[in-house]
UniProtKB/TrEMBL annotation:
UniProt protein name: Transcription termination/antitermination protein NusG
Domain NusG-like N-terminal: 19-127
GO cellular component terms, A-Z: cytosol
Encoding gene (name): nusG
Record keywords, A-Z: Transcription, Transcription antitermination, Transcription regulation, Transcription termination
Summary of the function given for this chain in its UniProt record: Participates in transcription elongation, termination and antitermination.
Membership in a protein family: Belongs to the NusG family.
Gene3D superfamilies for the chain: 2.30.30.30, NusG, N-terminal domain (3.30.70.940)
SMART domains per the UniProt record, alphabetical: KOW, NGN
GO biological process: DNA-templated transcription elongation; DNA-templated transcription termination; regulation of DNA-templated transcription elongation; transcription antitermination
Spans traversing the lipid bilayer: none
HAMAP family: NusG (MF_00948)
Organism, scientific name: Thermacetogenium phaeum
Length: 191
């Protein structure tokens, strides 16, 4: 819900979202982790835990092979941006906006725009966070049709389900014998 406060002097219209949403804040590039730490301290010191919940610097693993050695490092998905899960009120906006290193909220003018749920899920999935795993309504022994990938249009039987990886093992008939194939949940449909 958006709530306007007419009569405010020198300020844009107030925005209030009564449910928690994810917002994106812009920071100086390279200062994302410092902004996260500063904001966490401000939330604690100003007792805003009931309005500002989670602060994330979206990261993903990057694999580098240098001199024949494999190295995994963390890479920022959106350099210069930090995600904040919060209930937007004048007070929570003020705390976030006036945190050292924060340049602005992403939105139109002084109007922060929350991320859509599908955008949040895509970011969480890219980061490899648990809550982003899709669920599948299949049981072991059920028949499925492969709808994407090299085994498209093959019919198979679910042998194992790996919910933590969003994958399943399906037995498909190839060259006259059952062959196990590991597929993503999104590559199959229930018959």
């Amino acid at each position: 819900m958006i709530k306007n406060h007419p009569g405010e002097v020198g300020a844009a219209r107030s925005l209030v979202f009564m449910e928690k949403k994810w917002f994106v804040i812009h920071t100086y590039s390279g200062y994302e982790n410092k902004v996260k730490a500063n904001l966490e301290k401000r939330v604690a010191s100003m007792n805003m835990q009931d309005k500002i919940f989670r602060i994330l610097v979206p990261m993903e693993d990057e694999i580098e092979i240098k001199d024949g050695k494999r190295r995994v490092s963390q890479k920022k998905i959106f350099p210069g941006y930090v995600l904040v899960e919060m209930i937007l009120t004048d007070d929570s906006w003020y705390v976030v906006r006036n945190t050292p290193g924060v340049t602005s909220f992403v939105g139109s003018g002084n109007k922060p725009i929350p991320l859509q749920q599908s955008e949040v899920q895509a970011i969480m999935r890219q980061m490899g966070l648990e809550e982003a795993h899709p669920r599948i309504d299949l049981d072991i022994g059920e028949s499925v049709r492969v709808i994407a990938g090299p085994f498209e249009n093959f019919i198979g039987t679910v042998e194992e389900i790996y919910p933590e990886k969003s994958k399943l093992k399906v037995l498909v008939s190839m060259f006259g014998r059952e062959t196990p194939v590991e597929l993503d949940f999104t590559q199959v449909e229930k018959l």
